[in-house]
Amino acid sequence: MAKQIFLDTETTGLDPKQGHRIIEIAAIEFNNRQPTNRRFHSYINPERDIDPAAEEVHGLSIDFLQDKPLFKDVVNDFLAFVQNSEVVIHNAPFDVGFINAELGRLGLDKFEENTITITDSLKFAKEIRPGQRNSLDALCKAFDIDNSSRTLHGALLDAQLLGEVFIGMTRGQEAISIDFVEDDNHQVFKKVDLSKLQVIQLLPEDIDNHTAYIKKHDLTDW
């Protein structure tokens, strides 16, 4: 399975077309649906003011960001981190729009060219939970994930929570767990986690067709 990167950003405002910039970016790596110790995180000096409404959401001030690196200073490390990954983002068009605006200022390829694929977890949540609230907070509650430390939006914490939420939303999609175990005679065999097997109820006509097939091909002793 390709590695998955769970990503989030914080910004100076809502629209990169109006000159708003990224001020925080975080990415958390999962491998085989488990978090690894690898992550990318940086605060960024946006070289512009922050909208008051945005600051109320994330709590990051321009004073705090004055001595932080510029996007151009961290872009190479950031792109290297997400390379050859599935990147999962909640409301992906928003974050990707900002990332592409930053990359465009530097004359670099679009974000999509640096990943295997981008998955919008908000779109996926709406598909499996139609008509319900699908904010990150709502999904944490739905999948019993502790988000009590999320008093403000923060890219690093939100990326971590998103990873847990997405694993919860896709729990039925993982492969059957197969372990190799050894018996008393040192014979190695496979142990399958039966709790993850999907049981399909046969219809009466399925049973009749199977019985007819057995009789036709003389497989009663097979």
Topology:
Blueprint: E1 4-11, E2 22-31, E3 34-43, H1 52-58, H2 62-65, H3 71-82, E4 86-89, H4 92-105, E5 117-120, H5 121-128, H6 136-142, H7 155-169, E6 178-182, E7 188-192, H8 204-216
Parallel strand pairs: 1-4, 4-5
Antiparallel strand pairs: 1-2, 2-3, 6-7
Q: What count of helical segments does DSSP give?
A: 8
Q: Mean pLDDT, nearest integer?
A: 85
What letter string, H or E per element, gives the SSE order? EEEHHHEHEHHHEEH
At CATH level 2, the architecture is 2-Layer Sandwich
List how many beta strands DSSP finds: 7
Distance between the termini: 37 Å
Tell me the strand percentage band. Answer: 15-25%
Low-confidence stretches: 174-183, 185-192, 194-201
Question: CATH superfamily, please?
Answer: Ribonuclease H-like superfamily/Ribonuclease H
Short description:
This protein has helices at residues 52-58, 62-65, 71-82, 92-105, 121-128, 136-142, 155-169, 204-216; strands spanning 4-11, 22-31, 34-43, 86-89, 117-120, 178-182, 188-192. The chain has 222 residues and is α/β, with parallel strands linked by helices.
